[in-house]
Amino acid sequence: MHFDLLLALTAFGIGIVVGLTGMGGGALMTPVLVLLFGIHPLAAVSSDLVASAVMKPVGSLVHLRRGTVSTPLVRWLCVGSVPAAFAGVLLARSLGDGEDVQHVIQVALGVALLTAATGLVVRGCLQLARRAARARAGEAGAPDAEDDAPVPVRRVATVLVGAVGGLVVGMTSVGSGSLIIIALMGLYPTLGANRLVGTDLVQAVPLVLSAALGHLFFGDFQLDVTTALLVGSVPGVWVGARLSSRAPGGVIRPALAFVLLASALKLLGVSTPGTGLILAAALVVAPLGWLAIRRRYEITAAPARTPATGAEAGARTRAGADRSELLA
Question: Which value, to the nearest 10 degrees, does the dihedral of the CA atoms of residues 195, 125, 301, 290 take?
Fold first, then answer.
């Protein structure tokens, strides 16, 4: 078995990004395997999913232990996502072998990355809207009061979200940590941030396991690629999580969206000059649009912090710890 040291080092860097941001594993790893290392798209998806199946349980166990998981939501999401993820593998395989199926997988991956990049923007807008709503209610800076409140489950919609997310993950390995969480934010706007992340992490475990199992049987799993991914990404995620309490999230997530957009354009066959023009336009339009959204919600610079009481300090400490555990 050939061990690729450069691939392991690259996986280490991507693992740091995942530990810092809580997302981007499949969305970054798979296109890197395809674009930089020349691995066929189906083999890249297969190897990345098997590696993810080893990493996903880490963060989910922490959230289960802390009780920041909505178990009913996990159950109904899995009803849709687990069979759909396995079906996504079969669908990708049914397209045939050779260059045709590789092209279809590559295009599907490009579309999924575009959706993930858009989802990051949408997530940021939704978070701004929630912050503005809390500020108007006089709760600015307070922990999410709704974290422990029961959430009525919209069963049909939740199963559909799981099914669509599972199908995308099974075909492209993208979506378990980026697409589904955006849909959950839209379906359950009152779900607290910690429970939102914890629920998404836990439901992703059986989802990714199902997709990984399908790719082990019917995909193009390559042991040497997966070994290099695990050797690099597992310590990378740990380092990223350790650094996350000091990382400027307002810079990391836009950078991640930019990388996803660039990867998607190349996977979709956009020329290099065309990609450069689109990315340059995004660099100009995105900051202006973000500024307009902040003004729309009347978000200004955060006020200076007052000395925290014991309870407030404890809440801030827990919030920082939760952020460091987003190992999706």
Answer: 150
Domain that holds residue 100: 5-299
**Residue 147: is it exposed, middle or buried by C-beta count within 10 angstroms (0-12/13-18/19+)?**
middle
- Split into its structural domains, the chain has a count of 1
**Residue-wise pLDDT tens digits, 132-163:** 777 766 654 444 444 456 678 899 999 999 99
Calculate ∠ Cα 67-69-71, nearest 5°.
Answer: 115
Kindly tell me the burial class for residue 95, based on how many C-beta atoms sit within 10 Å of its own C-beta (0-12, 13-18, 19 or more). middle
Q: For residue 178, which amino acid is it?
A: S
Where is average pLDDT lowest: 69-73, 257-261, 278-282, 298-302?
A: 298-302
Question: What distances in angstroms separate CA 23 from CA 7, 310, 328, one per listed residue?
Answer: 20, 32, 5
- Asked whether 203 and 74 are in contact (CB, 8 A), the reply is yes
Residue 324 resides in a domain:
no
The C-alpha atoms of residue 213 and residue 211 are separated, in whole angstroms, by 5
The beta strands (E) that lie in 210-327 are given as none
Residue at 289 is within a domain: yes
Contacts of 22 (CB under 8 A, 6+ apart): 177, 197, 323, 326, 327, 328
**pTM exceeding 0.90:** no
DSSP for 29-61, please give it.
HHHHHHHTT---HHHHHHHHHHHHHHHHHHHHH
**Phi, psi at residue 247, to the nearest 5°?**
-85, 135
Query: What letter represents residue 189's amino acid?
Result: P
